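Sequence only, no structure available. Ideas?
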Amino acid sequence: MSDHPAVLVTGGAGYIGSHCCRALTTAGYHPVVFDNFSTGHRHFVTGTLVTGDLADKAALARAFAQHPIVAVMHFAASSLVGESVADPQKYYLNNLAGTLSLLEAMREAGCHHLVFSSTGAVYGNADSKSLPENYACAPINPYGASKWMIERVLADYRGAYGLGSFALRYFNASGADASGDIGEFRDNETHLIPRAMMALQGHVSDFAVFGDDYDTPDGTAIRDYIHVTDLATAHLQALQLLLQGHRGGAFNLGTGTGFSVREILGAIAAETGRAVPHLVKPRRAGDPTYLVADPTAARETLQFRTEHSDLATIIRTAWAWHRKAHPLKPADPAREFRSS
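Reply:
I predicted one. C-alpha cells follow.
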C-alpha cells in the first residue's frame, strides 16, 4: 500500500481520467483507478487498478475499505451526444444512477471530497457566444441533461451532507500527453479531431462535417477546445482546494476562444501537410451552434491558466499520438470523398 494520499479515480482508464492519474502521481497522490473497461484501456492505467462498475455497490465498498481514499475524481460516464439521443435510458442509468451509487459509497466510507467531470453541454443551445457559469442551464440532449442532474444532486448533497464538490464543466477536451503514451482512443470514435486524423490515416472512410448551414462565419459549428493536460491540472487544483476546506461549486474549463469545424480541419492540414477528405452531412440532433466558455471564474477561484491549449499544440500532440496509436493504412482507391 502506498504512503501517498489515495484518490479514487472512476473511469481512470479513459482518456481524461488517465491524464488526471498522471497529474495526481506527479503531485504526490496515489491514484486508485476504478473502471469497468467498457471504454477504457488497461495500458492507460496509472496507479492501483480496481476493476468494477459503479452499479456494483459491493465493489465500490471494497475499494474504499482497502485503500485510504481521501477524495474521488469522477469521470466514469457515457459521453456520446448522438447515442444519448438514441438511447437516453443508458445515459440516465450509467451517469445519474451510477453517480448516486458512488455518492452512497462515499457517505458510507466517510469520504467528503469529490471532483466531478461535468460538461459545457449543460448550457444547451445557448444564444451567447461566451458562457459564464450563471448562464441558464438548458441541455438539449440526454447526455447534457444527465450531467446537469448530477450537478443538482451534488449541490443538494453539499447542503445536506457537507459534501465538498467541484463540478468542472469542460468544453471540448483535446490533444494528448506530451510523452505520446496516452491519448484519445475509442473503439467507436466520434470526436472531431481524432476522427479527422483517423481519416487521414485510412482508418475512417466516411468522415463527415455535420452541418454547413449554421449561423457562423463559415457555416460550421464553433467549439472551445481545451488540452487534456490543462484539464488534468485544473482537476488537481480543484482537489487541493477541497482538501483545504473549500466547499466547491460549478466552474467552466475552457479557453474562451472558439474554433469552427472548418478551422480545425485547416489546422490539421497545416500540421500534417494533407487536407482531410470529408463529406458534408446534415446537422446532428442535439448539436448547438456555439459552445464557448467564459473561464473567468476558474481563473479567479482555481487559479487556473491554460498552458497547452493553443490550437497548434492541441493538433501537434494529437497527431503525434495518432501516428503512434494508429499506424497508417495503405490508401484505398475505392474510397470516395467529396471535399468542400
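The radius of gyration is 19 Å.
Hope that gets you unstuck.
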